[in-house]
Amino acid sequence: LKSEGLSYDYLSLPEIKREKKLPVVLSKQEVWQMLSGCKLLKHKILIGILYGCGLRCMEVRNLRLCDLDFDRKQLKVVQGKGKKDRYLPLSEHLIRGLKKYIEAEKPEDYLFGMPREGRAGGEFDSRYSQRGVQWAVKQA
User: Fold this and answer.
1) Average pLDDT in the 86-99 region?
2) Domain Tyr recombinase, which positions (predicted)?
């Protein structure tokens, strides 16, 4: 209606309240089981960052090498949820894994994969991250 120049003030309806469900929290044993089921280092690191830092798939796909600060043991998430930047702590275990992954895979800019061609902002194909996580979960 607004695009047609019509007022839509009369459409102010009450907001529908939805139930907020708590996320499923895995036990330490379940997390180790999932990580040990991964055969590829890339998948282990991907899941380690998702779970250990609490990142979303989109945030992991947009991680760049310059976002890692091993000296300060932190990870910078650029334009995460709510378009806000934030810093997250990295565990020693995850830092060791990241260094091993970087040495083996030698990523140039983005930590995981290459940006999709023709997409502004270097967006990634979401299937890789989802497939990697789904595969690891099925193996556990």
Assistant:
1) 95
2) 21-140
